[in-house]
Amino acid sequence: MGALPLAGALVALPLLALHSSPLAAQAWNSPDAAALVRRAVERRVAVQADSTLRSYRARAHGFVFFLAQVGEGLTQPPRLVKADELDVEVYWQAPDRSKQVILGWRDGTFLPTDINYHRDHLGIVTNNFGDVIRIGEGDEVRDVVHPLSPGGLLLYDYALGDSLAIRTGRGEISVREVQARPRSFARPLVVGTLYLDAASAELVRFRFSFTPAAYLDRQLEDISIVLENALYEGSFWLPYRQEVEIRRRVSWLDFPARGIIRGRWEIEEYDLNLALPPGLFSGPPIAGLRRPVAGDTTWSEPLERAIADVAAPLNRQDMDELRVEVERIARARALGGLPSNRLATGSLSDLIRVNRVQGLTLGFGGVVGLEGSRLQLRPQIAYGTSDERITGELTASVGSGGTRLTLGAGRQIRDLSDLAVISPALNSILAQEGGKDLGDYVLLHTAGGGVRHRVSGRTTLGLDLEVQESRSVAVAAEPANGSYEPNPALGAGTYRTARLSLERASGGIAVRRDLQGRVALEAGEGPSDYVRGTLEGRWLASLGGSELLSRVYLGAGNDGLPAHRSFVIGGRGTLVGEPFRAYGGRTAALAHLEWRLEVPAPAIPLGSFASTGRTLTLAPFVAAGYAERPISGVPWRSSGGVRPVAGVAVEWFMRLLRVEAGIGLRDGRVGLTVDINRDWWGLL
Question: Which of 100, 168, 255, 334 is most buried, taking the most CB atoms under 10 A from its CB?
Answer without folding.
Answer: 100
